[in-house]
Amino acid sequence: YALRGGMEELPRRLAQHLTRTAIELNARLVRIGREASGGYALTVRRGGELSVEQADVVVLAVPHGALHAIECAGDELRRHFAAHVAAYDRPGHYLRVSLLFERVFWRTALPGAWFMLDAFGGCCVYDESARHPHESGGVLGWLMAGADALMLCNADDGTLAELAVASLPGGLAAIARQSLRECRVHRWAGAVSARPGRPTLAGAEGPLDRSGRGGLFVVGDYLFDATLNGVLRSATNVAELIAASLTSDGLLPPGAGA
Q1: What is the pLDDT of residues 40-98, one digit of tens each?
Q2: If phi over 0 gives left and psi between -120 and 50 gives alpha, with beta otherwise, what is residue 173?
Q3: Contact 114, 125 (CB under 8 A)
Q4: CA 178/CA 212 separation, integer angstroms
């Protein structure tokens, strides 16, 4: 199934249901440091202004590539943070080119919801119209990966649209040029993990802060298998670690969970 309105609707709907939680958009964490009295000092950028806030427990649920943009204060915390980033620094590159056509001209030659091409080092093309049927028009989406995707990320949308159309077999390319109406490109250079998880730890990452307080955690699909299931498993592990810590400190009754 697909989300009506796109994937961005998922966090928006979650925000609507989490009525007891303060949710802030367009605020970026730029620096994190450990406080001498316990907890963490978080430097947050909102527009052109910086502010410092305190937190007892911090969970960084961001893509691996975004961790590079967070500065750590203190040699010990910086060393542990850098070791975590380096352990999973295996970037994968993807490029998605979606083209809207005024008619579905490919179905007789290329039936099914997807097909493979030899172009771009091997490329999967999805018939998005099979999932989102419409009385007029149709959409094909080219998903490119690896070195070819990285090389093409700097190309403009028009160039990528022409390359995608030209990759269609037989006489479909000429028909596609006449029927093409719109192009959308999504570039994910180094944004996902090429080899998620680690054989030794199987993604069972503990606290990043090993000072004895252990209130800094990470959540990410790259810790497991680069899927939504991996995100959920990672989040569950962190929630259980936090609940266990709160229980041992007497802040939660035994068996309360998280």
Answers
A1: 999 999 988 999 999 989 999 988 888 889 999 988 889 988 988 888 888 889 999 99
A2: alpha
A3: yes
A4: 65
Report the relative pairing of strands 91-101 and 180-193 from DSSP bridges: antiparallel
Which two tokens mark 226? 């680069």
Cα-Cα-Cα-Cα dihedral sign, residues 36, 215, 66, 197: positive
Distance, in Å, from the CA atom of 45 to the CA atom of 76, rounded to the nearest integer, reads 24
CA atoms within a 13 Å half-sphere pointing along the CA-CB vector of 48 = 0
Q: How confident is residue 207, by pLDDT bands cut at 50, 70 and 90?
A: low
Q: CB–CB of 223/193 below 8 Å?
A: no
Closest alpha carbon to 103 in 132, 138, 142, 139 = 138
Return all residues near 68 (Cβ < 8 A) that are at least 6 apart. 85
Q: What does the DSSP assignment read for 49-97?
A: EEEEEEES-EEE-S-GGGGGG-EEESHHHHHHHHHHHHHT--EEEEEEE
Rounded CA gap, 107 and 103, in Å? 10
Contact (Cβ atoms closer than 8 angstroms) between residue 103 and residue 170:
no
| pLDDT digits 0-9 by tens, 7-33 | 788 888 888 888 888 888 889 999 999
pTM of the model: 0.71
